[in-house]
Each structure stands twice: as structure tokens, then as C-alpha cells.
Design goal:
Structural class: mainly alpha
Number of helices: 6
Radius of gyration: 13 Å
Helix content: over 70%
Strand content: under 5%
Number of strands: 0
Shape: globular
Largest sheet: none
Length: about 110
């Protein structure tokens, strides 16, 4: 296992444990916020910890429609409406910047 994979796995563990400080450390050490097809953002949306979602977004998480849409669905299904609002807003900004239309989920 490479060192980077250790940080990536550590990031997922930190998210699962709702440990904001550990998330910060893993990201500062080079963990990929889009590791394993965006599972970090989906796990964060599931956790309900808005600050962790913000940290991941600030580090480039969810840059594809697929990742953002999946995380949005998770947040909504769990009743984490602040996170859902943040993800929807982020998706709209990306779509405006790229000139794409919004899909049915975003």
C-alpha cells in the first residue's frame, strides 16, 4: 500500500468517525477527496457534519456531476438539509461556470 493510500483510507475513517480535525490532517497530507469514486463526499453527506462537507469541497471533492448528485441524494435521504442546500448550490455554481443545464436531481 502506498503512503497516499494510507491517507486516503485515513480520510474515509476520519469521516466515518466524524473527526473534523483528522479530516483536516488527512487532506493536508495529500488525501484525495475524490478517492473511490467520491465516497468521501457521500460518507460526509451521510454523516451530517456540515464542516466536513465544506472541508472536502474546499479541497476539490465532488467536481463531477455524478459525485455531487450522489452525495446530494444521500444528504436529502438522511434529512441533512443544510448539506443538501450546500451541495445543490455548489452544483449550480459549477453548471453556471461551465454553461451546462441543471439535471433533474440538481
Amino acid at each position: 500500500m502506498t503512503l497516499c493510500n494510507c491517507f486516503n483510507r485515513g480520510l474515509l475513517d476520519a469521516i466515518d468517525n466524524k473527526d473534523k480535525e483528522a479530516v483536516k490532517v488527512m487532506l493536508s497530507c495529500g488525501a484525495d477527496p475524490n478517492y473511490r469514486e467520491g465516497s468521501a463526499l457521500m460518507r460526509a453527506a451521510d454523516s451530517g457534519v456540515l464542516e466536513i462537507v465544506r472541508l472536502l469541497l474546499a479541497h476539490g471533492a465532488g467536481i463531477s456531476d455524478t459525485y455531487s448528485s450522489a452525495a446530494l441524494g444521500v444528504a436529502e435521504s438522511r434529512g441533512h438539509f443544510e448539506i443538501a442546500t450546500l451541495l445543490r448550490s455548489r452544483a449550480e455554481k459549477i453548471k453556471r461556470a461551465t454553461g451546462r443545464r441543471s439535471g433533474p436531481n440538481l
